[in-house]
């Protein structure tokens, strides 16, 4: 679990990933030069979100090469998922802004016809199942990683349940479990008759992997879900090679693979949260794995909530006592998520809507607590030292408890 030794084969693999990273950066820079060739740039973009303001709206738009934000008049008849042909100002955009997303002006636009995709059909199914716009937003985010409005995002942050809604490792595990067992018995029937020599479990895992890859594409390759998918692939490979799966090196390789192929994700907070979440799960397993499993089931969710607060509050200062609901919600979500997948397939998912509406509309008293920069750096340093030192892990837990007391009691 704590070995970080790198042999020659691993060093070659890391070198290849660095080469891939540099190649992708060179490709991205060539696209950037095309973008900057003139003072204006014309492209097709999908509206991935609309942020409503008093006097104007802010559009978040996604192209095949980059994402950007722009103001738009409120009287324009635009909605989420519309396809626009836009002419934008490219003069003040540097390469870093190009990678991480930038703010610019739309000089001209016109709406384009949209080709109906399988993703659109799923969205239509969700819309047909529900009447409340916020609940539709919730399920679109939960199943397809569609961006939600600022108001609904604030609800998630105020309840500290963003990790539940954002597609990541847990969602991938649930989906893989459901897909695996849906395939298992039909595949067994044909295998027993026509190809008994095949390794059934491995074949089904490969089919499941292919379906999950399609799902990853369907969600526009969300950074946190991509991290989970890469770890899933590495897990299968390591399992087949009889190599320990749960190791910090697995997480390190996952990070390198994702950044090598998608260097822009280095700027994604969601990706970093996903990496840190797995890191703290590994720390938990390293130090608490020998305790009673039923105790660990509850303690794990409590500890993960507390250990992550200093990280989250460096970026999102919103604080409320209702954030403690995150612990039972996270536990309950293990049942809720797969149940809602089935419920939407059979179009009976509206049963929970009235309870979700109460949950969303509940007024929360929110105050702000920021993690100071010095504490944030110290916390990360002690977290990494905990890989090798039990004393550092003990100190980490003291820092965790102290910060949460500071947040909620002082």
UniProtKB/TrEMBL annotation:
Which keywords does this Swiss-Prot/TrEMBL entry list? Membrane, Transmembrane, Transmembrane helix
**Sequence intervals crossing the membrane:** 12-30, 160-183, 204-225, 245-262, 269-288, 294-312, 324-346, 366-385, 392-409
Name the InterPro entries for this protein. ComEC_N
Respond yes or no to whether keyword Glycosyltransferase is given for this record: no
Entry's NCBIfam families? ComEC_N-term (TIGR00360)
Gene source species: Aliarcobacter vitoriensis
Q: What is this protein called?
A: Competence protein
| Family annotation (Pfam families) | Competence
Q: Does the keyword Ribosomal protein apply?
A: no
Residue ranges occupied by any ComEC/Rec2-related protein domain in the UniProt entry: 147-324
């Amino acid at each position: 679990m704590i070995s970080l030794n790198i042999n020659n084969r691993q060093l070659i693999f890391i070198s290849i990933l660095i080469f891939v990273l540099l190649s992708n950066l060179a490709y991205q820079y060539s696209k950037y030069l095309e973008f900057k060739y003139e003072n204006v740039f014309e492209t097709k973009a999908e509206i991935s979100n609309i942020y409503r303001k008093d006097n104007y709206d802010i559009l978040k738009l996604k192209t095949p090469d980059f994402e950007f934000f722009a103001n738009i008049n409120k009287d324009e008849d635009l909605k989420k998922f519309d396809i626009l042909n836009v002419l934008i100002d490219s003069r003040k955009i540097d390469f870093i802004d190009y990678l991480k997303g930038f703010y610019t002006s739309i000089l001209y636009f016109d709406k384009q016809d949209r080709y109906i995709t399988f993703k659109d059909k799923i969205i239509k199914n969700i819309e047909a199942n529900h009447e409340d716009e916020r609940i539709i937003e919730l399920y679109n985010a939960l199943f397809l990683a569609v961006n939600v409005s600022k108001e609904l995002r604030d609800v998630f942050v105020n309840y500290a349940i963003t990790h539940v809604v954002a597609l990541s490792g847990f969602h991938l595990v649930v989906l893989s479990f459901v897909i695996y067992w849906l395939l298992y018995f039909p595949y067994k029937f044909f295998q027993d008759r026509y190809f008994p020599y095949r390794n059934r479990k491995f074949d089904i895992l490969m089919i499941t992997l292919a379906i999950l890859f399609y799902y990853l594409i369907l969600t526009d390759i969300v950074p946190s879900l991509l991290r989970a998918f890469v770890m899933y692939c590495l897990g299968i490979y390591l399992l087949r090679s009889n190599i320990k799966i749960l190791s910090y090196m697995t997480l390190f390789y996952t990070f390198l693979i994702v950044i090598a192929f998608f260097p822009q994700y280095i700027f994604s907070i969601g990706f970093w949260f996903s990496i840190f979440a797995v890191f703290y799960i590994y720390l938990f397993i390293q130090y608490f794995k020998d305790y009673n499993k039923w105790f660990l089931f509850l303690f794990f969710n409590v500890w993960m909530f507390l250990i992550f607060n200093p990280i989250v509050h460096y970026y999102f200062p919103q604080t409320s006592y209702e954030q403690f609901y995150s612990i039972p919600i996270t536990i309950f979500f293990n049942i809720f998520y797969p149940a809602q997948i089935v419920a939407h397939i059979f179009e009976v998912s509206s049963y929970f809507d009235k309870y979700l509406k109460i949950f969303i509309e509940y007024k929360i008293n929110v105050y702000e607590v920021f993690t100071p920069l010095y504490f944030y750096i110290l916390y990360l340093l002690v977290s990494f030292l905990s890989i090798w030192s039990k004393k550092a892990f003990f100190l980490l837990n003291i820092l965790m408890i102290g910060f949460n007391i500071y947040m909620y009691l002082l």
